[in-house]
Design brief:
- By secondary structure, the protein is mainly alpha-helical.
- The chain has a domain at about 45-160: Thiol Ester Dehydrase, Chain A (Roll).
- It contains six helices and three strands.
- The protein has helices spanning about 1-20, 40, 65-95, 105-120, 145-160, 165-185, and strands at about 50-55, 125-130, 135-145.
- It is elongated, with a radius of gyration of 28 Å.
- The termini are far apart.
Length: about 180
């Protein structure tokens, strides 16, 4: 009898543990509009082709202000992501290309690429929104990664080295060769 009671108790505890783990208490939060907290609030979606960002607004009297602050926040996060991707790409390019001494030209190229990508927000679309119990807007936006690729490739194709910089680099190489020749005497 004792074994039967112990087995039944263990089974009940196991069932409660399994069913209790299935639901996330964060998703059961009901928002100001009667909608439960969406899954993208717990974990921002990931994709190979789309960059997702959640913009968070702030409490305000006017509904439009709350939505606009969420959009501005999302745009700021998108801009930070773009800057990080371009900066990392340029850093890797400089290191792998061995062009570390020509940083002025590369910085100009990086700035031009960032300016183009920040200015272009085509494809930046609202996917969903949720208003939390405090009235704060949370908006899920998507941005096609292909748009950043396009901006970067246009900048690369438009990038032309300054003739003066190329000539200075050529002269520096000649001076170095001259130095080597002098040292070999």
């Amino acid at each position: 009898m004792k074994k039967l009671f112990l087995c039944a108790f263990t089974l009940i505890v196991a069932v409660l543990a399994v069913t209790g783990c299935k639901s996330d208490p964060r998703s059961r939060i009901e928002g100001a509009e009667g909608v439960n907290r969406p899954e993208w609030m717990n974990k921002t979606p990931k994709s190979d082709e789309i960059y997702y960002v959640v913009g968070d607004g702030r409490p305000a009297e006017i509904d439009t202000v709350r939505r606009n602050t969420a959009r501005i926040d999302a745009l700021a996060k998108l801009s930070q992501w773009k800057s990080a991707v371009v900066a990392d790409t340029m850093k890797s390019y400089v290191e792998e290309g061995g062009a570390i001494g020509n940083t002025q030209t590369l910085q100009h190229f990086e700035q031009a690429t960032l300016a183009r990508s920040d200015a272009n927000i085509s494809g930046f679309d609202q996917e969903d929104y949720w208003v939390d119990p405090d009235g704060v807007y949370h908006i899920l936006y998507s941005y096609p990664k292909a748009d950043l690729r396009t901006d970067f490739s246009v900048s690369v194709s438009e990038f032309q080295r300054n003739e003066a910089a190329a000539f200075a680099e050529f002269k520096a190489e000649q001076a170095y060769k001259y130095l080597e020749a002098q040292l070999e005497k």
